[in-house]
Amino acid sequence: NKKLLDIKQLKTYFYSDEGVVPAVDGVDIAIFEGETVGIVGESGCGKSVTSLTAMRLTPGKVVGGSIEFDGKDLLAISEAEMRSIRGNEMAMIFQEPMTSLNPVFTIGQQIGEAVQIHMNYSKQQAKTHAVEMLKLVGIPRPEQIVDEYPHQLSGGMRQRVMIAMAMSCQPKLLIADEPTTALDVTIQAQILDLMRKLRAERNTSIMMITHDLGVVAEMCDRVIVMYSGKVVEEGDVVTIFTNPQHPYTQGLMKSIPTLDSNEKRLYSIKGNVPIPGSLREGCSFAPRCEYAMDVCRRQAPQLEEVESGHSSRCWLHSSDQGETRNENTAH
Ligand code: SF4
Ligand code: MG
């Protein structure tokens, strides 16, 4: 299987009067053709900035690393080339479709726009295509909806329209950032079903950004856990759910709501994600970690393989015991 997206040591920093925030701080993410990879973590951990950087839409500054997509170096190509990839070979759906749908254009015009730009469709062809896409995403009365405006649709319908827009050029990679978070459970299940169907029909790769581990369990082949701008654990979905190694991942797993609880995304991990870069030394999870040792506060652990295809960034299972070993032998 071929690597479609290959992000290496990516660094996206934000600069302000208060200082530098390394929102994405040396992140590696690979996504293979047809694969669905979940990027998980609480808000503020760098998931969205990573995906926006991959689309070259980040408001931050890329200060290091590389992004290769389908053999192209995305950080080196021109803005014109990037525009032809964006919305065409790479497409994105967001949590709140109202912010990405334009209120003054009809649904048909918006779905049709991408194929008019990227595939040179005529207006009439674009409209016919839009109707087909609306059918594909299960919108009832597509011939009528195609001439309606976003505000005339429900939230679930708007999210379907977003998916229709994103899928209309048959992208190789779909980036979905909290695609179902704002929707009720029934609509959420329908949207996930729809994404699975599209993936099966078109072999689309999906980067699924979410803090909802239920979505990850249902959709993903592989999981990347991010914390404070870094990848802290990575593995296939079964491994991450059954044998999480990093204390942060273990905390996330404990906070999965049970079936009889209505409370969603209830975190049992005390404290908040630190602003990336605010802790100058050591493991950024140390202030919240029940296993934190002296070495954790002094020296940052590296991402290391704990078994084949499964990596974690934690001193607990690191082969290199850092300074502690030196100290112990010195005393
Ligand atoms: Fe906890 Fe230390 Fe592991 Fe960080 S390195 S997660 S503080 S045990
Ligand atoms: Mg986000």
Structure, described:
With 331 residues, this protein is an alpha/beta fold. It has one domain (3-89, 169-327): 3-Layer(aba) Sandwich (Rossmann fold), CATH 3.40.50. The protein has helices spanning 47-54, 79-85, 97-100, 107-119, 123-136, 142-145, 155-167, 185-202, 213-219, 237-242, 247-254, 294-298, 323-330; strands spanning 3-16, 19-32, 36-40, 61-69, 72-73, 90-93, 173-177, 205-210, 222-227, 230-236, 304-307, 310-312. An eight-stranded mixed β-sheet has the order 6-7-8-3-9-10-12-11, sandwiched between helices. α4 packs parallel to α7 and α5 (123-136) crosses α7 (155-167). The termini are far apart. The structure holds iron/sulfur cluster and magnesium ion (MG).
Task: Annotate the secondary structure layout.
Blueprint: E1 3-16, E2 19-32, E3 36-40, H1 47-54, E4 61-69, E5 72-73, H2 79-85, E6 90-93, H3 97-100, H4 107-119, H5 123-136, H6 142-145, H7 155-167, E7 173-177, H8 185-202, E8 205-210, H9 213-219, E9 222-227, E10 230-236, H10 237-242, H11 247-254, H12 294-298, E11 304-307, E12 310-312, H13 323-330
